[in-house]
Amino acid sequence: MSQSAEPGSASTVHLAGSDTTYSCAPGDTLLRAGLRAGLGLSYECNAGSCGTCKIDLVAGEVCDLWPEAPGIKLRDRERGRRLACQSVPLGDCTIKSRVAEVYVPVHRPQRQSVWLTGARDITHDMREFSLRALTPATFRAGQYAMLHLAGMPPRAYSMSNTANADGLWQFMVRRTPNGVVSNALFALPPGSALELDGPYGLAARGWPARHCLYSGRLWHCAHGRYPGRGGDA
Ligand SMILES: Cc1cc2nc3c(=O)[nH]c(=O)nc-3n(C[C@H](O)[C@H](O)[C@H](O)COP(=O)(O)OP(=O)(O)OC[C@H]3O[C@@H](n4cnc5c(N)ncnc54)[C@H](O)[C@@H]3O)c2cc1C
Ligand code: FES
Question: Between 224 and 163, where is the model more confident?
Answer without folding.
Answer: 163
